[in-house]
Design brief:
DUF5933, Phosphatase PAP2 family protein, two-stranded antiparallel sheet, transmembrane helix, mainly alpha, 2 strands, globular
Length: 433
């Protein structure tokens, strides 16, 4: 019932986003149209092959090799066909469609060739893989809608509020420039490959699905998808483009000094003046508040805590490097990161509570996390000047608010862990004379 509900909800969201994209974005294709095009046109291979990898957790090793071989074979046929007609795929991608065909083929096999629990398990695997792909498509559509429907951005409010934290984006930007190209390339790779890290962790968590013939009650993919589906809604409420755009030359081919308030990032902190909404271009996504990269990296960190030592170290490194990249590249303000951590912990707490059954501690934790997140957004919007005027008060308060949610999450989850009580030993009976 849960998987059926999730499928119906996802289909409804896809239809809604398709209509919204065509209405608000001048007829631009939405996630459903884009997904259909991926069957023939060469898409980005990473998301589709990552989705297929998640699907294959329900297959045996022999079936996995067959599925991977079929996907690669289909992609080779498509690539040869494009070469024969001299068709150059956009973005230079030649592979990816094969993985989508294999996932759809497995869905057909599940319906026509499987019965009972085996059918359900295979459909769950296919659904998990397609949800990952659909989540990315929905996220891309959200970003396009934010750029078209929010002509004014609220960066000056966050820039002023960030004074309470000591302008960390400006500090990180100067530090990264001083480190040199090696550090820049490492952080750029970490930032761009966050989804790959999530898939690696998820595959570790789901490694026993094929043998046990069931999924665990909770795993990273659930948190990752919910963060990606809910988070962009706040971009509409609090549209922000980031320091490198609002106070710098822009990045990734969008923005520009002519759109910025001033070319200040990262060497000169923004002036201490009353904030106001500012116009920006209709291309750059308004995707800063909250920082979903921070939220996803936090989720990865949480889900690696019970893994082997190497996985725990990797999760810690990915979180630290992601935080450094979001600030050092000028994509986010410090207050974005605080909101992202609170957002991730609240989502994780809600999903874990749902998986294990809601109780008083779960309800209290989710309610508290939601309240803190809402308070952060309200304070950023309506109290930035007060925060900047009293950094010794509001800076520690922001950190304390985030730390309180972290503490609440750690405390609650320790209570949720099953306690291993030693077996009671039978009492020694006195010997009979």
């Amino acid at each position: 019932m849960l998987w059926a509900t999730a499928g119906v909800a996802t289909l409804g969201l896809l239809i809604t986003m398709e209509i919204a994209a065509r209405y608000y974005c001048g007829g631009a294709p939405g996630p459903m149209t884009s997904q259909v095009k991926d069957l023939v046109h060469a898409p980005k291979p990473g998301p589709l092959y990552a989705g297929m990898a998640l699907m294959m957790v329900v297959l045996t090793w022999r079936q996995r090799f067959v599925a991977a071989g079929v996907a690669i074979g289909i992609d080779i046929v498509f690539a040869l066909g494009r070469w024969a007609v001299d068709a150059k795929p956009p973005g230079g991608h030649f592979f990816g469609s094969g993985a989508l065909w294999v996932m759809l083929g497995c869905a057909v096999i599940a319906v026509t060739r499987r019965t009972g629990q085996e059918r359900v398990l295979l459909l769950k695997g296919v659904g998990l893989g397609l949800l990952l792909v659909a989540g990315r498509k929905i996220g891309d559509t959200w970003l396009l809608i934010t750029s078209k429907t929010r002509p004014a951005v609220l960066d000056p409010y966050l820039a002023v509020a960030d004074h309470a934290l000591g302008d960390p984006s400006w500090l990180a930007g100067r530090t990264l420039a001083a480190i040199g190209p090696v550090g820049t390339h490492v952080l750029d790779y970490v930032y761009a490959q966050l989804a790959v890290a999530a898939v690696v962790v998820a595959l570790y968590q789901l490694r026993h699905v094929a043998a046990e013939r069931r999924f665990p009650r909770h795993h990273l993919v659930r948190t990752f998808l919910v963060i990606g589906l809910i988070g962009p809604a706040f971009y509409m409420i609090f549209p922000v483009v980031g320091p490198v755009f609002a106070y710098g030359p822009g990045a990734s081919g969008t923005g520009g000094v002519h759109w910025a308030l001033a070319n200040l990032w990262p060497h000169t902190p923004p002036p201490f003046t009353a904030p106001h909404p500012m116009p920006y271009d209709a291309i750059t996504p308004r995707n800063c508040m909250p920082s979903l990269h921070t939220a996803w990296a936090t989720a990865i960190f949480i889900h690696t805590r019970k893994g082997p030592r190497l996985l725990r170290y990797a999760g810690t490194f990915w979180l630290i490097a992601t935080l450094a990249a979001t600030l050092g590249f000028g994509y986010h303000y410090g207050v974005d990161l605080i909101a992202g951590v609170v957002f991730a912990l609240t989502i994780e707490a809600a999903l874990r509570s749902h998986a294990r059954g809601w109780d008083r501690s779960g309800i209290q934790l989710v309610t508290y996390g939601t309240s803190v997140f809402a308070a952060l957004l309200v304070s950023y919007r309506h109290m930035p000047m007060e925060m900047a005027e009293h950094p010794r008060v509001f800076g520690p308060l922001l950190i304390l608010a985030m730390a309180s949610v972290v503490y609440g999450y750690v405390r609650a989850t320790k209570l949720w862990e099953p306690k291993n009580t030693p077996a009671r030993q039978p009492e020694r009976q006195p010997e009979m004379a």
